[in-house]
Amino acid sequence: MFLSVFELFKIGIGPSSSHTVGPMVAARMFLRGANAPGAARVSVSLHGSLAFTGKGHGTDRACVLGLAGKMPDSIEPDEVEAVVAEVARDRKVTLPNGQ
To answer: What's the predicted TM-score (pTM) here?
Structure first.
């Protein structure tokens, strides 16, 4: 059986990609499935090791990036801080339906 290095390793932001890739993808999947007319707030709850080490391992930022529509394998590392700052400043994310 042949395995590519890309099947073994996933691209993601750090410092701990195990605490950023999954949460970022999950947040984006939630965003893509969200169709909540009149929704005013999104709340993220982390559990297990994500809750215990989330901020130190970048999980909080990964969730924000996912809710901003970003993916771990396509976001430019240089744009991470700007996206997180924009969401924090504007205090909003845009749903796929434009809401």
So the answer is: 0.79
